[in-house]
Recover the amino acids of this structure.
C-alpha cells in the first residue's frame, strides 16, 4: 500500500483501495465495462449498417445509442443496466490512469495505456451521466456544450488546446489502426484460454474493428482540428458526425466502417472474457 501511494497519481488509487476497490473489484468493473461497450458498438454499427443500405437505422454516437435504447420496450431497465456498465468502465479508467497497465511494453505503450484510461473515464463517465439524466427525465445539454466550445475558440489558448486535441485524436486513430492491422491486440488477452477457432476469429475481428474505429477517430480529429483553424465550433465532433462525413463518400465506405464497428463491438466481448487486467 505504501509503495502504491508513492506512485504518480497512485494516491488516488490508494484512496479507491481504502474504500474497498481491490484488484478483483476493479477487474470486475473492467469486464462489465467491456461488455457494455460491446453492446454499445454492436447497436451503433448495426444502425449505421441499416442506414447505409437504406433500411432505416441511423448514424449515432454513444449518447444517441443510449437514447435509442431508451425508446425500446423496457428501455428504462436496459438504460439502467447500461449505466452500471458505463460507470464501471469509468472507474476502471481512473485506475488505469493512476497506475497504468503492467503489460504495456515500452514507455510509449505505457503512456498510451494511461491516455486510454483518461479517455475512458471521461467518455464513459459522461455516458453514465447521460443515462442517469434520461432515467430522471432530464434533457440533453448539447446546446450548452456547443456554447462552451464556441467560447473556448474565441480565446487564443483555447484554439491551441482544441487544435492539440484534434492532432492527438488523429494520432490516436492512426495508432489504433496500426495496432489492429499488426495484430497487437493478441498481446492483450490470454490466448491460451482460447480455442484455435476463437484465436483466429479474435485476430480478424480485432483487425477489422480496430481499423474501423481508427478511421472514425481520425475523422473526428480532423473535425476538431478544422474547428480550431477556422475558429468555428460547427456541429458535434463525435462518431455520428464522422459517420455522416463518411456517408458523403458513398454507400460502400459507410457500410464497410459500419460493419467494422460491429466487429469492434464483438472485440469488446472477447476482452470481457479473455483480456488480462494487470494494473500497475
Amino acid at each position: 500500500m505504501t509503495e502504491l501511494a508513492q506512485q504518480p497519481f497512485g494516491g488516488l488509487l490508494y484512496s479507491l483501495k481504502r474504500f474497498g476497490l481491490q484488484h478483483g473489484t476493479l477487474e470486475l468493473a473492467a469486464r462489465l465495462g467491456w461488455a457494455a461497450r460491446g453492446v454499445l458498438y454492436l447497436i451503433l454499427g448495426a444502425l449505421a449498417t441499416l442506414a447505409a443500405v437504406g433500411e432505416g437505422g441511423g448514424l449515432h454516437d454513444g449518447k444517441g445509442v443510449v437514447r435509442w435504447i431508451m425508446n425500446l420496450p423496457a428501455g428504462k431497465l436496459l438504460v439502467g443496466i447500461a449505466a452500471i456498465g458505463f460507470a464501471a468502465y469509468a472507474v476502471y479508467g481512473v485506475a488505469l490512469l493512476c497506475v497504468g497497465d503492467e503489460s504495456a511494453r515500452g514507455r510509449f505503450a505505457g503512456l498510451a495505456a494511461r491516455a486510454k484510461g483518461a479517455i475512458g473515464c471521461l467518455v464513459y463517465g459522461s455516458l453514465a451521466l447521460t443515462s442517469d439524466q434520461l432515467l430522471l427525465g432530464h434533457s440533453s445539454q448539447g446546446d450548452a456544450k456547443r456554447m462552451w466550445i464556441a467560447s473556448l475558440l474565441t480565446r487564443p489558448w483555447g484554439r491551441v488546446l482544441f487544435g492539440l486535441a484534434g492532432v492527438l485524436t488523429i494520432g490516436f486513430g492512426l495508432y489504433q489502426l496500426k495496432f489492429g492491422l499488426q495484430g497487437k491486440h493478441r498481446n492483450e488477452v490470454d490466448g491460451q484460454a482460447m480455442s484455435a477457432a476463437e484465436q483466429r476469429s479474435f485476430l480478424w475481428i480485432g483487425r477489422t474493428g480496430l481499423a474501423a474505429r481508427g478511421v472514425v477517430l481520425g475523422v473526428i480529429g480532423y473535425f476538431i482540428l478544422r474547428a480550431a483553424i477556422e475558429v468555428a465550433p460547427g456541429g458535434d465532433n463525435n462518431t455520428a458526425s464522422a459517420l455522416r462525413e463518411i456517408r458523403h463518400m458513398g454507400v460502400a465506405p459507410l457500410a464497410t466502417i459500419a460493419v467494422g464497428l460491429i466487429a469492434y463491438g464483438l472485440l469488446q466481448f472477447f476482452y470481457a472474457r479473455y483480456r488480462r487486467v494487470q494494473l500497475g
